[in-house]
Amino acid sequence: MDILRRRIILIPLEELVPYVHKAEQISPDPKDVAYLALALKLHCAVWSNDKKLKEKQTIIPVYNTTELMKL
Question: The pTM is what?
C-alpha cells in the first residue's frame, strides 16, 4: 500500500468538472463518465476491457489488456 500511495496522484473532483459534460456526451455508460473526464483532462488513453467503451466512442483511445501487453 505504501508503494501505491507514493505513486498514485489524486485529482480533486473540482478539476474534472470542466470535462464532465463532454464525457457524458461520449460515454456509452454513465459509470464511465469519471474515467473519460479524467482522460480528457490528462489527454491520455484508458485501459479497459469494456468493448462498448472502446467501440461506441472514438474521442478517447481505449486499450484492452491484450493490446497493452503487445506494446
Answer: 0.86
- Grid cell locating 15: 478539476
Distance, in Å, from the CA atom of 28 to the CA atom of 12, rounded to the nearest integer, reads 24
Residue 40 lies in a domain: yes
State the residue range of the domain holding 37. Answer: 12-70
Structural domain contains residue 7 = no
Q: What is the pLDDT of residue 4?
A: 83
Residue 62 φ/ψ, nearest 5 degrees: -125, 125
Task: Quote the radius of gyration of the chain (alpha carbons, Å).
Answer: 13
Q: What letter represents residue 20's amino acid?
A: V
Dihedral sign for Cα atoms in the order 6, 46, 35, 22? positive
